[in-house]
């Protein structure tokens, strides 16, 4: 089958040659390559203006990122064999890193598979396809996953808003085993039941696993506040480390019900209580009640999803951290995170420092965490380094 060429404007190959894989519509020579003649997701061969061969990729004329470079080897076009090879590469890394099969198996561009996310829960997989190019070869990808891992169930969580930017419909589907039973995973000796069909993302946040493990190093004290707790990954970890009173806050009643069940599953129910409500409102209530905690855990959703959200998102991060610091005992531990790519590590540190000043606290930054190695960072694609988790000791200002 003929693969049409995608020809770049002069000097627009530099980013690609440096390792990036995104191509924007204003980087295409549209006279040589009429974008509108291409179908969404269509495979293309990418050339520089001087006809230098760059690689194989796929195009979407209706998206701002109008093409993605996938293979840089001329002998390896985008075939079923190619997808198998990339999946084996991804699996080899995770098997090197993890003794149990609970991790993100494929992290898009970082694993050379832009537009594909795969989370592994033992012999079950949650898959998210976010681009027209991956949607076009969906059958090949699923066949490759079945060949490599022999899963008993696959959930397609294609309900992300990113798909709409690619002109794709959103849906949630179950393949193979269609029973509605809970999926389970283990992390640091704890067992969690999750809902891959209706939960946030694919049901779990593997990216914070390494940071949750770090809690043991610092000690959590007796009273812990877990804000944006979801199904209890942070809070139950704190309880397992010896906290006698863990208060978990989330807006979702369903998530808190699942958290309670997970606490019971691990024999921690007596130490864990839940509080449903808006994080900011609940923190203010706790402050007014004079409550204090030895550790405060803040793991909110992204407040800055697009660059235009930067001002409001920055203010939200500062407000949340100020409220969290107000609730800390002197010498207490604040573990605070941002998963907003548009919030830099330095910017986030500055926000927490300012929150400390307003809370009249002297801060010691003990450690900075990022996403775990099952979410590898692509050195040429800054967008793949998104998670910042600060471990901070808060002392009286005097």
TrEMBL record:
SUPFAM superfamilies: PUA domain-like, S-adenosyl-L-methionine-dependent methyltransferases. Keywords: Cytoplasm, Methyltransferase, rRNA processing, S-adenosyl-L-methionine, Transferase. It comes from the Bacteria. Residues 180-376 form the S-adenosylmethionine-dependent methyltransferase domain. GO terms for biological process: methylation; rRNA processing. GO terms for molecular function: methyltransferase activity; RNA binding. It is found in: Cytoplasm. GO terms for cellular component: cytoplasm. Residues 6-72 form the RlmI-like PUA domain. The keyword Transit peptide does not apply. Belongs to the methyltransferase superfamily. RlmI family. PANTHER family: RIBOSOMAL RNA LARGE SUBUNIT METHYLTRANSFERASE, S-ADENOSYLMETHIONINE-DEPENDENT METHYLTRANSFERASE DOMAIN-CONTAINING PROTEIN. This is 23S rRNA (Cytosine1962-C5)-methyltransferase.
